[in-house]
Amino acid sequence: MSSRKRCLPGDNGNGEQVGPLPACKQVRAPSNGHVAALILARGGSKGIPLKNIKMLAGVPLLGWVVRSALDSEMFESVWVSTDHDEIEKVAKSWGAKVHRRSAEVSRDASTSLETIQEFVRLNPEIEVICNIQATSPCLHPFHLQKALKKITEEGFDSVFSVVRRHHFRWQEVKDRSGEMTKPLNLDPANRPRRQDWDGELCENGSFYFTKRDQVKAGMLQGGKVAYYEMLPEYSVDIDVDIDWPVAEQRVRRYGYFGRAMPEVVRLMFCNVSGCLTDGRVFLSVSGEEMVSVNTRDTEGIRMLQREDIEVVLLTSDLDPVTKSLEDKLAKRTGCQVIQVGEEPLNVLKPMVEQKKLEWKDVAYMGKEEQDVNCLNLAGLSAVPKDTPPVAITAAKYICHNSSGMGAMREFAEHILLQKEKAKAKMDQDRIDRCNF
Fold this sequence. Notes:
This protein has helices at 61-72, 85-93, 112-122, 141-152, 212-216, 243-254, 272-276, 295-306, 320-323, 326-333, 345-354, 372-377, 389-392, 407-435; strands at residues 2-6, 25-29, 34-40, 55-56, 59-60, 77-82, 97-100, 126-133, 158-165, 170-172, 181-183, 200-211, 225-230, 267-271, 282-283, 289-290, 310-316, 336-340, 362-365, 380-383, 397-398.
């Protein structure tokens, strides 16, 4: 297998991190030619205007699948096909290349196949193309890795994603017989129990791997065809407004949040100023300065502690108000409270090493520019809703709640959900073993 390096923003090309964004990734090209990912993102969506760049759980919808495609390390190039300037800007910011599609394939009546054929015609070096649906935010890199092996190692010409459904289907009848419907996949006189029926495989639209020759022949599923089964938890599609809140809840539980995503967090750092407090300082008549801490947030800390996750609170020597709270916070929460300066990483890095942990085992919550390096390094990182853009771009999770208003509790719940996600991953691995 040949390989090359893709240098993303935040890396100087020598493996040295110079900013908050991901470092270089080693991309392995399958032996049978250039494999490319193509995400179709037209600007004229009728159901939800510009839905491809609408924020979902703190990330543009498009960003979820671009991140998974890049982190799979299975593609020599990852592209977004669009006709819209704002979508192009978002796609590039997430590390994708951009194919500006022609007006002929940007109409309401244009098909996905027509757009893919145009792309393949303009990029003759591509031998295998993976059309990834932008509206499938629960797609993970391992889905793409295992599906592509069916082409590169097992000799299939096309592979598409499916989900297993246990739905009894009926067909509407419109004739003079008087019948309204007829069964399609069952005998009404002998209805099977769910556990006695394998169900049916339904396309979930997440991705379609196809060799170049099949696309030129006008097919996304042709030649020797295979399917890749995904669990229902990962089979999310967004079409109309009512799908959005359901998808947001699902992606928070089952979405892919980055390469260093831990299955279990061992240690969490939380900045007191701007995370546990809301930034306001109250002055008493006698001149005392006071801040408030939300009981929901302190309960979030206890939730983590009950799961044997150590929580360390950070105060700044630049903020005398939170510094004066150290003893009270330690007593109220049972947490170690330490001071950090303008670069918290200088203090926290030796601490992580002393505990014999890696940063992928660490969660970090911050809000300001000085938190950026830690937000980027941590396996799980979050910022409150009211965070400046410089820190938002470094975080893997953006809370719905603001500083001092339950953001810490929300992030604690998100951390604990990763255990459930690990179980779902084990179930998906079981399906993969059965299908290979």
